[in-house]
């Protein structure tokens, strides 16, 4: 029997996933501008790359028990001092939990229950975060380098963005003169 080389690489510390059939998507500011308080975003600014997501799974994605591995890279971008964030979502299937794993950079993981109560956890290289199935989750880069996190979640979880649009996270995250401020909406 021949020992095989790994077919996937989560390149460390550079942190990208390489391999066949790795899915890749990215969000520009024009895709997520509604998340930010500022309404003064220039046309040029709208082309700023905000975050990138790699994901991978094998086999039937509808198969209960199957998993995605993912990597999110949030760039160090500030929109009038407001920190770069993911859209944030609940899982369509509220029973599906997720792990986030800090690889590089410095961030916050915002968690919000279905009543709109929010908490925040620091994300650092090596930090491991358990996200219960009924919590919306959003990543925020509060540092000066790209924030990279690994993630693992069931392929049957689904992304429910609408519930977060209807009930947004109650705090905005700013960095003001190097200090992180949580500002109630
Ligand atoms: O599954 C996850 O929670 C992550 O892979 C996110 O989808 C990723 O971080 C991007 O965030 P969002 O889907 O909220 O834009
Ligand atoms: Ni998720």
From TrEMBL:
This protein's pathway: Carbohydrate degradation; glycolysis; D-glyceraldehyde 3-phosphate and glycerone phosphate from D-glucose: step 2/4
UniProt-recorded name of the protein: glucose-6-phosphate isomerase
One GO cellular component, as annotated: cytoplasm
Pfam families attached to this UniProt entry: GPI
Family to which the UniProt record says this protein belongs: Belongs to the archaeal-type GPI family.
Top-tier EC class: isomerase
Cross-referenced InterPro entries: G6P_isomerase_prok, RmlC-like_jellyroll, RmlC_Cupin_sf
Any GO BP: gluconeogenesis
Domain Glucose-6-phosphate isomerase prokaryote: 33-166
Enzyme Commission number, as recorded: 5.3.1.9
Keywords: Gluconeogenesis, Glycolysis, Isomerase
């Amino acid at each position: 029997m021949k020992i095989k080389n790994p077919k996937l690489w989560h390149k460390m510390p550079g942190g990208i996933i390489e391999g066949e059939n790795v899915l890749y998507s990215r969000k520009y500011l024009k895709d997520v501008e509604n998340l930010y308080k500022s309404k003064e975003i220039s046309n040029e600014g709208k082309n700023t790359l905000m975050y990138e997501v790699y994901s991978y799974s094998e086999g039937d994605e509808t198969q209960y028990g199957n998993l995605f591995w993912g990597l999110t890279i949030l760039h160090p971008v500030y929109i009038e001092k407001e920190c770069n964030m993911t859209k944030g979502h609940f899982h369509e299937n509220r029973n599906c939990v997720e792990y986030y794993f800090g690889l590089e950079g410095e961030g916050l993981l915002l968690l919000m229950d279905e009543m709109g109560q929010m908490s925040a956890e620091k994300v650092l290289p090596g930090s491991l975060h358990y996200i219960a199935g009924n919590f919306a989750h959003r990543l925020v880069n509060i540092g000066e380098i790209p924030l990279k996190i690994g993630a693992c979640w069931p392929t049957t979880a689904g992304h429910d963005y609408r519930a977060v649009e209807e009930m947004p996270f109650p705090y905005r995250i700013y960095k003001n003169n190097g200090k992180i401020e949580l500002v109630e909406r």
